[in-house]
Amino acid sequence: MDFNRRLQKAFELTEKNFDSINIERAIFLSYFCELRDCKFCYMSTIKDSPKKGLRSIESVFAEAFLVKMANWKVEFLSSGYGVYDIKNISNIAKGVASITGEPVWLNTGVLDKKALSLFENEIKGVTASIETFTEKLFTKLCPSKSWDKLMNFLDNASDLNYKKGLTIILGVGEKREDLANLFDIIKNYKIDRITFYSLNPHKGTPFENFVSPPSLYYIDVVSETRIMFPEIEIITGIWSDRIALVGPLLMAGSNGITKFPWQKFYGSKLGKSLTSEILEFQKISKRRFEGSMTDISLLKNKLEFPKNPVYKNEYIKKEILENSEKIKGRMSSYILELKAQDKINY
Ligand code: SF4
């Protein structure tokens, strides 16, 4: 099938199977990783990293409240390897799930079966960051991570009835023809969600002098994935300088956009630009974005819990309310930051 026909087909399948367009926010629990040697990762440029960069739980919860108010989705809770123990991750997940009213996805590294079985219904699914199409390239890119452990992690998630996701970075030396291998993994492990990013060449990494992959290649991979898997959830990452990719990615089968820095976007010219991409796309689509990227007045310094939540935990809710002053303090400084950004950009 040629490129134009494939794009058309991918668009039709996405229209048939989905109603919404999502803005997805990965909530970071830390800016620390004990591995720090994945070749594309900016953390690999940080030589000595004591366990700093852990976020306070109040700031994580403050961000979750704001994400909910803007009607975005929490893509997953994310952290590097070796940051938190299971109990901590589970508590944070319960808090974020109570705030958004939905169980959360995790992207916090490989967890063994015993650890995974300690979670309850606060978790919807787990993410295996395989990063690329083949084990061979993965081993070169991520020397301290284990492909077999990631696959085993997916098996364990299946046994425990969790959903399963993958993350892939495009432009790190993969071959287009190896996409078939990725599709085998999606099929064999019954993957529910895939997040594609395009390479952001970080200074100090071997990719420093690379460029991000061409937009048509990105769209080609997304559309091919949609055609192969009409019902899989596809999330696509963009960087601040690639907002014009949003419309084409949505056409190619993406369900949601992620990765851009929300503090820079919300209420600013960048947020306006992203909104206009979505509005233009909505003229040819029945899918809808029900949230906002621009309306600062939606962000209130109040702890509001959802009215009809899928996930609810009265004990955690009480704990959050007991800490409300600290959380509101964080929310207030985030909102001030966004307003300051607003003034700069308009
Ligand atoms: S495991 Fe994740 S955070 Fe750690 S170095 Fe690799 S990509 Fe970076």
UniProtKB/TrEMBL annotation:
Transmembrane intervals: none
MF GO annotations: 2 iron, 2 sulfur cluster binding; 4 iron, 4 sulfur cluster binding; biotin synthase activity; isomerase activity; metal ion binding
Enzyme nomenclature, EC number: 5.4.99.58
CDD domains, A to Z: Radical_SAM (cd01335)
Domain Radical SAM core as annotated: residue spans: 13-239
Pfam families the UniProt entry points to: Radical_SAM
PANTHER family associated with the record: BIOTIN SYNTHASE, BIOTIN SYNTHASE, MITOCHONDRIAL
Protein name: 3-methylornithine synthase
Organism: Candidatus Methanofastidiosum methylothiophilum
Designated gene of the protein: pylB
